[in-house]
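Purpose: get a first structural picture of the assembly so the mutagenesis plan has something to point at.
Setup: two entries, given in the order below. No constraints added.
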Amino acid sequence: MSNIKYVYFFGDGSAEGNADMKNLLGGKGANLAEMTNLGMPVPPGITITAEVCTYYNKNNQYPEGLKETVEKGLTRIEKMMGKRFGDPKDPLLLSVRSGARVSMPGMMDTVLNLGLNDQTVQGLIEKTSNKRFGFDSYRRFIQMYSNVVMGMKGEHLEAVLDALKQKKGVGLDTELDAEDLEGLIPVYKAKVKEITGKDFPEDPVDQMWGGIDAVFGSWNIERAVFYRKLNNIPEDWGTAVNIMSMVFGNTGEKSGTGVAFTRDPATGERRFYGEFLKNAQGEDVVAGIRTPQTIDHLEKHFPQCYKELTEIYQKLENHYRDMQDIEFTIQEGKLWMLQCRVGKRTGFASFRIAVDMVEEGLITKEEALLRVEPNQLNQLLRPIFDLTSKKDALNNNRGLAKGLNAGPGAATGRIAFSAETAIEWKKQGEKVLLVRIETSPEDIGGMNASEGVLTARGGMTSHAALVARQMGKVCVAGCDALDINYGTKEMKVNGQTLKEGDYISIDGTTGEVIEGEVKTIPSEVLQVLVHKTMKPEESETYQKFVELMDWADEKRTLKIRTNADQPDQCEMARSFGAEGIGLCRTEHMFFEGDRIDAVREMILSDDLKGRKKALDKLLPMQKGDFKAIFRVMEGLPATIRLLDPPLHEFLPHTDDEIQGLARQMGVSFDHLKAKKDHLHEFNPMLGHRGCRLGILYPEITEMQVRAIIESVCELKKEGVRVEPEIMVPLVGHVNELKAQREVIDRICEKVFEEQGIQVDYQVGTMIELPRAALTADKIAQEADFFSFGTNDLTQTTFGLSRDDAGKFLPFYLENELLQVDPFVSLDQEGVGELVKIGIQKGRSTKPSLKVGICGEHGGDPSSVEFCHRQNMNYVSCSPFRVPIARLAAAQAVLR
Amino acid sequence: MSNIKYVYFFGDGSAEGNADMKNLLGGKGANLAEMTNLGMPVPPGITITAEVCTYYNKNNQYPEGLKETVEKGLTRIEKMMGKRFGDPKDPLLLSVRSGARVSMPGMMDTVLNLGLNDQTVQGLIEKTSNKRFGFDSYRRFIQMYSNVVMGMKGEHLEAVLDALKQKKGVGLDTELDAEDLEGLIPVYKAKVKEITGKDFPEDPVDQMWGGIDAVFGSWNIERAVFYRKLNNIPEDWGTAVNIMSMVFGNTGEKSGTGVAFTRDPATGERRFYGEFLKNAQGEDVVAGIRTPQTIDHLEKHFPQCYKELTEIYQKLENHYRDMQDIEFTIQEGKLWMLQCRVGKRTGFASFRIAVDMVEEGLITKEEALLRVEPNQLNQLLRPIFDLTSKKDALNNNRGLAKGLNAGPGAATGRIAFSAETAIEWKKQGEKVLLVRIETSPEDIGGMNASEGVLTARGGMTSHAALVARQMGKVCVAGCDALDINYGTKEMKVNGQTLKEGDYISIDGTTGEVIEGEVKTIPSEVLQVLVHKTMKPEESETYQKFVELMDWADEKRTLKIRTNADQPDQCEMARSFGAEGIGLCRTEHMFFEGDRIDAVREMILSDDLKGRKKALDKLLPMQKGDFKAIFRVMEGLPATIRLLDPPLHEFLPHTDDEIQGLARQMGVSFDHLKAKKDHLHEFNPMLGHRGCRLGILYPEITEMQVRAIIESVCELKKEGVRVEPEIMVPLVGHVNELKAQREVIDRICEKVFEEQGIQVDYQVGTMIELPRAALTADKIAQEADFFSFGTNDLTQTTFGLSRDDAGKFLPFYLENELLQVDPFVSLDQEGVGELVKIGIQKGRSTKPSLKVGICGEHGGDPSSVEFCHRQNMNYVSCSPFRVPIARLAAAQAVLR
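Result (structure tokens, whole complex):
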């Protein structure tokens, strides 16, 4: 690495890096450089590149020459600040912070006030004339350093502090005076020695390198690894380290610190939005230990700084052309910018900001489309509380308190006071709300397992709020009224005591906390689109949603269809913008009402005659289903898949049911039982299913095709136009499709003759077996269309049963043998290769072959992008995922 | 088809076709043309091409102009023979015979004596001065024509004939005189009218076209379709039709007919071998109705003809450079050649003739290698009767009779008197011997289901003998002593009565028929190679076998390994020429003796400690296994596959067993039962198996690797060199192999350190999942070798569970949705495509990557050829298939 630059300087109006160097400098380092170059007041510092992190974690040592370069950088900082690191008279103090390519809030380590020891603390006190500040900084440094760098649990020193506060009879740290804090120092150091067996380091340079080691090392701590997995962040990105001159927001009443967003991160509203704490260090705001004041208090206390900050935030938003999340500190009346980055936001805020910024002329429609993570649109469809039910609850005195509306939506669940409990209960199928005094990075797993998060302390930018927003979880933060006791596992609020396991409801849009369960209703978008209980003009959210979707539709070339089996599902999907049915599974209809009896009779008949008799009963039912669906899908294509699952899936399970069926069919119990046993399969996934059913029992195909085509003919007579596509499942060899196509064409001709009318129809196949993809050139000879069934294709390509993978797939994901669950996001390397081969071969035979996908991947944004790149004609997904797919398809064009 | 020539003439020393035109003229037509061109006495005739058959069966009519061309050909025949078709004074008579590209013995239809009616029969009588012959020919014609062309069952006219014989008190047809036969004609015709409702055609031209229609139509009759399926003959080949001037072997004592082979078709011995019947038509010999005399009788009765025939057969063998099967007729002392073709032969004869012909300088070694169908070598390994057991049986008066040794080998089974019974019993798992008076094409299915075939009538070239030889079935034919009664389902022989279902034994090498079961012992080749109970010089078969194998080894480039799990299997495979182990399945060892208890304990342990304790018990056992195997395989590579099957396969099934295991492990029954239930899988084939076991439980891999490597190290100290290849199963993603490779390398290093010695080893993987083949470039980074596990690869690529396919795969094969069972012969189009991709990608990463196959396809000749074409390094198959693979690999080079 000898020729590689691994330390970048910034300070006093010019920097070696800039905002484009995020991959190398991390987000924080790149933006510090950019702000410096923009002439904003940034304390000087250096950034050690993320490449060093990767090198360090691989080789367990630093690249040659790094030490010297860092120390050279330190000298520049000293020169610029006019102070020396370790100077007992006027010491330069440093912060060491992580900063990866993407923000990982609270995930990784930070050490502040580096450079303090028994000598330099005196110089600090002298220079600031503030003994309390000096020793407060020193004891904070020991607390932080012993924890982050020396690996000691925070609770040990907290216990020392608590003991002191108790002895002095005070409640808050701020009530301790300078002498109290001075007295803490030797006690702290002794405790560190006792617990870690090591002396607390006095040499500032040792302290600095300890900090750097710790930050680089923190890339691999468990919670960071978990977070990256959750957010698909590659392991090899690494983090940069930023070493900056310290500025202090806690030197007294002329100082303070804050974080702010250039727009509301929960709702997307265009207003300067943030929080501020006087006489505090930045960590106090983020950690949620004290609940801060809103940003307008800054204007009152520091009008000049507020003015300057306003100019800066506007400049930043215009410069970056996106909503910014900024951190600042005021030291003795002077404003310092410590960080800026693209602000995390809820799905609501995300799409609203994107739409607004287009209207403001700040970004283009294309940019807006790329700004919204398609999966976030889910939030617009998520339930909200039913107003009547909520009013009832409040009237019945079940309203408990109000906190900050940190993550919109409605959530109900049992109280869990710890992440472990939340995870455990979730596993047992319970809905859980995680209730914490404050959350910390250790709680991520528990937050993920919960319906929503409720905290007693912390603001809109607290850990809980930030992470919940990003996860799309409902969150009410900083609800001071809660008095939580982890020991007794209960909390007191509004005069009541709630125990762990009790039901509670939170409204993340209003901040309300309510006892018990509250009924939920559909979101605004759903109310307008599906339920028609709200008019479009009543919902701003709906209007902006439609605007964004319209832009997406203008851009995308992929058609979006839906997987739906029932008329109501079809109707919903259409209202979400579905342009057809990509997969209608006929077997779902077989279970409805008492038709399952006819199905079972068909399966268990001994001969063709018996099967036909049963199928005759099913025909009018299937026809009714299809007619209803076709009516809804008027003018659009609808793909109907012929019967797919192995027949034993339809059979009765208990002896009682078999007995009943035997009576009905007029055969003996033993006979039916034997037939059922005969149908047993060792690997039903690879058994007698799909087109193998229709081939051995063509009468089933005949009935289904008749039901489809009679429906279409009859609707045509009514003037309803339908584009039926009959899909043969599980084809592995062209002869299978050929055989089924013969049956289909024969029945269609017959129906046309009977009905005296002709209709258009297509016959195609699922490509869901590797062999189908590999021989797609042959299969295309018999197919009008291909639909990639990527669920089964994933199962066969990986040799992985979805039903059984639970025994090892989670382990694979945790241990990074696989980066993503291939059932969630298409495995482009393996399964995707087959999709490519299938399309290429299929179109080599039939260039105009219509190709789509109908596995669950059809609603996964990265899979949609893949489908676009493969020149598919459409993707098909569940109704709720249609908007996601529309946006993802547009993004695919733009990328 | 207007420009296509579809009728070829032959006769009088020159022909329009020749032997190279088999595809068009069929084997019979091409060889008739060739013999004509060679100046041999062939009755003149025409061949209508097989293309016409395809056209006729597709369009249900003949191509334009065919009628005229055929009639023109007829005129040429008339001119050459100096007779006219239908001439009441001196009629030309014709035969109409099928003749496809390959011989389908007895499968298809023939009509003789065409052209006879009430007028022409008088001309025939006048010209031959033989009234009996005339009416015998006429009544035979009516019998044959009414059956073949008019679709009437033969039994009706047979009954008429039998009634007449009874009335006259005679036993044989030949005892009926001219008047008897004359009297039969009107009765026959009346019966035909009664049964078919149609008049028997009198017009010779109508008769001829009826015959042609029937032959072309017979391509599609059931038994022909079945035969083609059995022998992989494509449906679209069709048959040609040969129309020839009739010659008669039944005009009296100066006439006769025969069939002969230029070498012995059962043993391959070099001697003129055949059968002859005086005063008979050719069909009498083949149909097995009369048992003929051996060919040397011809020399006695027709010395001049015998001399001429000897010259012809030698000329033919030299000309065709292969053993020929010839048919001839002597009419009034003149020899006519009616057919010649390559003679069908047993596996024994096949390889012996090939080796002999090389020694005689007739063919090259390369040709010899291509002459033997590799699967036929199986016959050399098939059991023969134990001499002591057979002697005992004979001494105890269990010897019943002696017939013709028509199909070598030993077979024991229950007597079945009908094909249906044989098929039915075979399905029930019984061993069956089909015992028939004579067999006919309808019996093929039953012959296939039987261990062997025994007939009371018919010679070495009878239907039973021909078909049994080709199927490789043991056969004793023409055992006159049998008195079979289909009605009572019993047979009398040697004073005893045997019932259907009784056990019987036949020795196809000696012709002996023995009551009850006789013990079998290994074949000569096995006795020399494996059992050492015979010396090489004692077995000519063995010597010729070794010679052929040596030639094969000189040619082939593929290495042949074996799939073997036990030392004795390995030893046998080595003696068959295996050059290493391609697949040693370690799980088979897990079931042995009481080690299954330790395996179960390992599986059912709750924690690592418990599993390790159980694995510690298994280690010495596995090590013992490996050491024994490695010792046998000294100097050769041995691939050991790590544990593969899902763990539940090892679990106890009954509650009693679970109870016992619970006691042994000191846990409760309920606990174990619950664990067992927890391990249940819906699709075990796609479940927690293969490397997924070693990844979740690395301790299993550790134990197995330790057992392997400690064995190799200890053997090295003894001076025994081994090349271990550790194979990781069911890899789908490179990370899986990487993870297992880390464990393997770590344990190996550890063992090297402990043992103070280093050994070479390789780590590779099965490619048995589509994803592995598709990402082989990545996987090759971690692999020293690939072994294609085509069993599982076939299952996943087709989405076809071997255990469940029985419900539909037979239907697929019967209905030609699939041409061959993909588990028997590699599906080159689909699965083979993945093999190609896997090799190409794997070698793109690692050009020297060693690649083999270890699925059951490794012993299938066409799959071996495929592997050769893909430049694999080796194929691996079960020990008994090693010789087959050696030969197939040589053939692959030669093709």
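Chain A is about 45% helix and 15% strand.
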